[in-house]
Amino acid sequence: MNNERYKRGLAKLEEIDGQAGEHVIASLKDIAPDFATLLIEFPFGDIYSRPGLDLKVRELAVVAALTALGNAAPQLKVHLHGARNVGCSRQEIVEVIMQMAVYAGFPAALNGLFAAKEVFAQEDTMASPTT
Amino acid sequence: MNNERYKRGLAKLEEIDGQAGEHVIASLKDIAPDFATLLIEFPFGDIYSRPGLDLKVRELAVVAALTALGNAAPQLKVHLHGARNVGCSRQEIVEVIMQMAVYAGFPAALNGLFAAKEVFAQEDTMASPTT
Amino acid sequence: MNNERYKRGLAKLEEIDGQAGEHVIASLKDIAPDFATLLIEFPFGDIYSRPGLDLKVRELAVVAALTALGNAAPQLKVHLHGARNVGCSRQEIVEVIMQMAVYAGFPAALNGLFAAKEVFAQEDTMASPTT
Amino acid sequence: MNNERYKRGLAKLEEIDGQAGEHVIASLKDIAPDFATLLIEFPFGDIYSRPGLDLKVRELAVVAALTALGNAAPQLKVHLHGARNVGCSRQEIVEVIMQMAVYAGFPAALNGLFAAKEVFAQEDTMASPTT
Amino acid sequence: MNNERYKRGLAKLEEIDGQAGEHVIASLKDIAPDFATLLIEFPFGDIYSRPGLDLKVRELAVVAALTALGNAAPQLKVHLHGARNVGCSRQEIVEVIMQMAVYAGFPAALNGLFAAKEVFAQEDTMASPTT
Amino acid sequence: MNNERYKRGLAKLEEIDGQAGEHVIASLKDIAPDFATLLIEFPFGDIYSRPGLDLKVRELAVVAALTALGNAAPQLKVHLHGARNVGCSRQEIVEVIMQMAVYAGFPAALNGLFAAKEVFAQEDTMASPTT
């Protein structure tokens, strides 16, 4: 057991992904609980916890990569929330996605923008008073 | 003719890619000269010239995307030089590439790191006195 | 402002994509209005407006590429409509998609065929009298 | 007409994919009936019928590849059922998908695991008595 | 044995790919001779031999798809020769590749153009008198 | 520091990849030494060390995935050696690669077969007496 990496990873996952991260972990419980542990330990405990690169830039890099790959829509949405959680502005996020038109084509950029539109709308709904 | 976009794009291309950019443009002259014009006008004149995102972050986003896609080695190298030209540290570049192991797998990250190793070595060769 | 490219692009977008194109442009208005402009100017104003290749062949080439990439279902459907709009027969479209089994595998071709099935059914619905 | 390949392929398709295979074939009837024939003859009549590799390993290899590519969710689900039909354990399937985190990234592996979760749940529903 | 498909495929392979096709078949002899047979029978005997789509358009569709995928440079070159063999003009080929910048990004289009440049140069060398 | 995972991973890396694995680790020393550690710990210490799936099947799954992705030739070759090291027959390897023609297209399968041809030839060279 590697408690230190796990604790560091869990804290980082919560910092970045908030409830969306917890939801992913919970959804793995009955199919591959060990994968939830590995997901906390390696990406979050090992990679995101490294110094040398700002969390905002890390999240914008993920948004860039997942927009370009275009085959992981749920994870792109999680990281669009994550980018917002760590302080990226909507403009920064939109600019990164638009730029992907150059490197992965217009369809990839369009699908990234539509994902951002959905995430920003959720954010507005959460932020607005319910009464 | 759209001289303003072309001039703005050419200046931006030189700022980011330096001689590597000029080399790409020159190599298109006999196969598709119009594509050289479009490459200057759209990616560099339209996209890279937009406000709202730091050039350093733009280059790190490209390094992330091309590392993740893993099918455009020559352009990844051009942008590794570009990232250095606009002020990214070697550590920032290496961190972005390492992070891609999480989103596109270890082979993609390894090939990105080996490209960076080659680009940094070229940089060292250029920087060192020849006598 | 580059009115000539924009006007040429908008006319070409309407020629190829009809209402589907207008829908894409409208859906970008609140998330990235500049991207709608760039989408009209570069792909449609610059690329599709070029001589030297028949619009029918251009659309079949897009159907081939998006079927092979397999990660841009909404845009594939827009261009399946587009291919029909510029005069491609259903048989030509189906043949191009089937051929992608050779270059990108049977799953990519199957998903392309199912997209075509959906688009052709919409076309039949639109064409049939409602009374 | 090549009856032998077709018959061999149809038998193999039923052995591997059961009803899911028949459903794919049926769904091609009105869009591309020839493609249904080719799908039975080449993948199932030519490839899966070859000696030299166990059907269980063939199905795990497909699960690996479609998880890694990440752009063919319906076919991944068909082959998750197929892997079960030819005798792969749930553990073997989950291990192959988890391993893809190393080669295609965590999002690809997560989406593969969620597909397996869905397929295993369907399997449980089918297996349980309805009264 | 399926002599008719094989003969039809071999004739089609020679019509499209000429010596490059024979070279691919020969290079498979010691690693996977059966795959050479399957390659002749399915892509060339079954797919390329179908009516309903012009061979020129078939080759331009392959050029589009392989340029967009960006991970099969040797096969792209074979089909650039193939496109020329069946009568596509250099301009048509270049236009299809340029168009891929819209659907798969500028790096994919650039690498496609550089492949075309190489193929056209080989063509010029072959065509010029050797004395 | 996590000595147990590292030791377990290093032993597994040597079991699977032999000298090729050591070469990869050594080549990372001056560009990203931490990545060498992560590569030993996560893929080899965490994933390959798991029970529930035979090492032979794990290697065939990697060969399938990297052949299908088609964008990581050096890593495919390392794992073709790895598959042989853990006991896969040449026939099993060739069958897995041929099968990828169905899921990722003939170019991907061809490039996989040519990589196998190269790896098997190196193997023959190593095995033959030098005097």
Describe the structure.
- Six copies of one chain form a homohexamer.
- Chain A has 131 residues and is mainly α.
- Chain A folds into two domains: 50 residues, no CATH class; 80 residues, AhpD-like.
- Chain A contains six helices and no strands.
- The longest helix of chain A is centred in the N-terminal third of the chain and has 26 residues.
- Chain A starts with a helix and ends with a helix.
- In chain A, 56% of the residues are buried.
Overall structural domain count of chain A:
2
Overall average residue pLDDT of chain A: 94
CATH class of the largest domain in chain A: Mainly Alpha
C-alpha geometry of chain A: globular
CATH architecture of the largest domain in chain A: Up-down Bundle
Low-confidence stretches of chain A: none
| CATH homology-level superfamily of the largest domain in chain A | AhpD-like
Using the coordinates shown, work out and report the CATH topology of the largest domain in chain A. Answer: AhpD-like
Give the helix/strand layout.
The structure is a homohexamer of 131-residue chains.
Chain A lengths: L2 H26 L4 H15 L7 H15 L3 H13 L4 H15 L1 H22 L4
Helix pairs in contact in A: 1-2, 1-4, 3-4, 3-5, 3-6, 4-6, 5-6
Main attributes?
homohexamer; 131 residues; mainly alpha; AhpD-like; 0% strand; AhpD-like (chains A, B, C, D, E, F); 4CMD/NDH-1_regulator (chains A, B, C, D, E, F); Carboxymuconolactone decarboxylase family protein (chains A, B, C, D, E, F); CMD-like (chains A, B, C, D, E, F); peroxiredoxin activity (chains A, B, C, D, E, F)
